[in-house]
Amino acid sequence: MANTVSAKKMTRKIAKRTAVNRSRRSRMRTFIRKVEEAIEAGDHGNALTALRSAEPEIMRASQKGIVHKNTASRKVSRLAARVKGLQAAQA
Fold this sequence. Notes:
Blueprint: H1 5-41, H2 44-63, H3 69-90
Helix pairs in contact: 1-2, 1-3, 2-3
């Protein structure tokens, strides 16, 4: 347990930061899940719309330090490839 005033303050700050980060990570995962659900349903239009809204959310999470920049880019790239593959399968 924290004894000094500064240590107690740091635990409060960490708790606040953790809550914010958890919320941001959850929001990012929700957007990713919407894209994946649209892909599973086979709906290219809906998947493309979901991807366009998910991409800035994923990149924002990387800017805030929730995920690494390369991880965010990889997630966007793989989702985009799956959406593009869905279009090819429908054609």
